Here is the input.
Amino acid sequence: SGLTGSPVTFTATGTTGAASSITLNAGNNQSATAGTTVATPASVIVRDANGNPVAGVSVTFAVASGGGTVSPTTPVTTNASGIAAVTSWTLGPTAGPNSLTATATGLAGSPVTFTATGTAGAAATLAKSSGDNLTGQVATRLQTPHIVLVSDANSNPVAGVTVTWAAASGGGSVDPATSTTDVNGHAQTFRTLGVLIGTQTTTATATIGGTATTVTFSISATAAGASQMTAAGGDGQTGTVGTTLPTQASVRVADQFNNPVAGVTVTWTPASGSGSVTPTTSTTNASGIAATTWTLGPQAGTQTVQATGAGSPVTFTATATAGAATQIAIHAGNGQSATAGTAVPVDPSVIVRDADGNPVGGVSVTFAVASGGGTVSPTTPVTTNANGTAAGRTR
Here is the structure.
């Protein structure tokens, strides 16, 4: 005390010890759109045994999972604060978990792992996923839904996109008319078909990149069950007995909506006139038509054929005309007696028939006295009437 120079001050500098540990500093548990760079660069801090930051330590950053890239790919040296950081971490293109490691050989805590979640980007595509080219019966609800997939530019499914559905052709309806994509990027609807057979279509529309985008699903609509049958051709014909009519008898089989039904067996039966049909059964084609060939029976007059198979039977009518005249016979007026020089009470008449015994009209018959004298009137030919008869008067 009282001495000049008192107190005397000593100074010393404490230096950092050897690097001992590495820990996470910043940039963990981030989210970003898949294929883009996270907001905060991943960084670690290196310390000595006393917790002091250590500069000059090499740290290597590498992508561990999820794809993507990190920059730089060469080791990063800790700064005066003991921190080493990447310039950027770009996540992989697939939505989901990503990870990055920071490694400093020999240090406790190495490697340090960073995690990040890649999320889907904006909707970039609308595509059919399933439920295209279906087949169903008209006026029924399809059991299989139409499903679309909405994806981003990296093919990641995009949730929350509104899809509008419409029965674009063929009639019918959709349920629901709008739906929203789920976490898998899917949206769906069920189609109830209209009443017409053939191709029907359903459309799905969504806004992609600010533009309405549409995809189209196709359905093959088939007929309902056969419920009605009508004559399609071959009714009301006229032909000579024993001959085949020029036009086949045919029916059209349809469902309740008048769509043609294929594959229905139709049975053909001659109902009157003793004709025949070939074949006796036939099957409807794609147009719902079944047919048979009809040969008339030997009896002149009205003949019929009946078709049965769906709905009420259908009856076809034809008019059979007599064939060529082949025979003539006495009809009336034979074996009479009368006073000489007077007319017999019953005019002599004949009947002309074809080979099947049907009377033939329009045949010229000439009456002439063969013996005993007398006269016959007229002396010119007489034409047989519709009943096949012709008569003359004698005395």
Q: What stands out?
A: The first strand starts at residue 19 and ends at 26. The chain has no helices and 35 strands. The mean pLDDT is 96. The domain at 228-321 is CATH 2.60.40.10 (Immunoglobulin-like).
